[in-house]
Specification:
It is built from 19 helices and 8 strands. The chain is of the alpha/beta class. The strands form 2 sheets. A 5-stranded parallel beta sheet has the order 2-3-4-1-5, with helices on both faces. It has a 3-stranded mixed beta sheet with strand order 6-8-7.
Length: about 425
């Protein structure tokens, strides 16, 4: 069985790598490190299909060291011990270079096993990960490594790999392969910055091409059919999930309806209706809040409709609600107030509920001043009367400060007048 096209044309030289010019371009840091001949411990971080493994292999193949390759998804502690056991052998006399793919799947103990040998330089680590290493890689290993972030590859760069992929397939096949010019750009744009995904699409397009006596023709229509959803890069368990929902809420908070709709569309395209609804409701309460309190039942109603009708129609009430949240005035006064109140409670600042607020119960003989002494606000002008509500330890605490929007300012002015302050 032939290897995938992405593996068959994997670059063997830096100049063949597409994208990552911010670290691999002439004079850039990673390129200079590779050209120096001295390899420090490296961690490559970024989405899949952007060249992390390729660059790591190029570095490893240039090193005059014993090379071991492990994958975090399958490697065990025994595999690590087998690497360590070679340190004092003839094979490991020049040191060992360990290329560890998907390091995020190594647990803390497995990573700690490597630490001693990484620290003294007997093992040089080149690791790659699709997840944020500052969350998934043991701190002691991070402190002894240099982290380079790989980014999604721009369509212009990916098109170079797409054209090279079709050229290789032309050379491998006996029949004539014709490709419409529009195919190259479409695949490059539709792969979401993932070179491997683009090359997989190239192979599929050839397999699904129109066959005739003259050979195979790959049309733009075939490319659209095979790559129509591949621009969506989304993993509900990975960084991309949290990045998208974070951008979604921050765009609503920032009152940018266009950006918020874009991230909503990405969530819905991935079928993640629950995240789209949950963050929308949170934003209505946290970021609009008291500036326009009517937004909360409105958003709840829109979410109820979305969940009842399901996708794809759910996009309509959610779009209405997202735009309304973006356009509404903003206040996080309630958010800040409850955070401050909870901080006091968590710090142990509490105390007994004031006597006048307690539920009525029998006063024992030891109580000299019997009675609850609660003042019923509705029995006083303005439906308000001054009395202590907070416990003694917090009686002067202030958690809520009205926002500068007209709704909260109107409420503040009303109570200022009632309370005569």
């Amino acid at each position: 069985m032939a290897a995938p096209l992405a593996d068959r044309i994997r670059p063997s030289d830096l100049d063949e790598v597409v994208g990552q010019l911010h670290i691999l371009g002439e004079g850039k840091a990673l390129r200079r490190i590779m050209e120096s001949g001295h390899i420090p411990n490296l961690i490559f971080y970024g989405p899949s299909g952007v060249g992390k493994t390729t660059v790591a292999r190029i570095i490893a193949e240039r090193a005059n060291m014993r090379l071991h390759k492990l994958n975090g998804t399958t490697a065990s502690t025994a595999d690590i011990k087998a690497v360590v056991e070679e340190l004092d052998t003839f094979a490991g006399m020049n040191g060992i270079l360990l290329y560890l793919d998907e390091i995020q799947y190594f647990n803390k103990r497995q990573q700690q096993t490597l630490l001693e040998y990484i620290e003294n330089g007997r093992i040089t680590l080149i690791a790659s990960t699709t997840e944020n290493p500052y969350f998934y890689v043991y701190n002691a290993i991070l402190s002894r490594s240099t982290v380079f972030e790989f980014k999604s590859v721009e369509p212009e760069e990916i098109e170079k790999a797409v054209r090279r992929g079709f050229d290789v397939l032309r050379q491998e096949r006996e029949d004539v392969l014709e490709v419409e010019e529009a195919v190259y750009g479409h695949i490059a744009r539709a792969c979401g910055g993932d070179v491997r995904k683009a090359l997989n699409a190239v192979e599929l397009c050839v397999l699904a091409g129109e066959r005739s006596e003259a050979g195979i023709t790959v049309t733009a229509d075939v490319a659209r059919q095979l790559a129509q959803r591949s621009a969506m890069r989304y993993d509900r368990e990975g960084d991309e999930h949290y990045d998208i929902i974070s951008a979604y809420q921050k765009s609503m908070r920032g009152s940018d309806a266009n950006a918020a709709l874009h991230y909503l569309a990405r969530l819905l395209e991935a079928g993640d209706l629950p995240s789209a609804c949950r963050r929308l409701m949170v934003c209505a309460c946290e970021d609009v809040g008291l500036a326009y309190p009517q937004i909360i039942p409105i958003v709840k109603a829109a979410v109820d409709i979305a969940l009842q009708v399901g996708l794809p129609e759910a996009r309509l009430p959610l779009a209405d609600a997202v735009i309304m949240v973006c356009q509404a005035p903003k206040s996080n006064a309630a958010h800040d107030a409850i955070i401050a109140a909870m901080a006091d409670v968590q710090a142990g600042k509490a105390g007994p509920v004031p006597r006048q607020l307690q539920n009525k119960h029998y006063d024992g003989d030891e109580v000299e001043n019997k009675g609850q002494f609660y003042k019923y606000p509705h029995s006083f002008p303005g439906h308000w009367v001054e009395q202590q509500y907070l416990p003694d330890a917090l009686k002067d605490a202030v958690y809520y400060t009205p926002g500068d929007n007209k709704t909260e300012q109107a409420f503040a002015a009303y109570w200022k007048d009632v309370k005569g302050k």
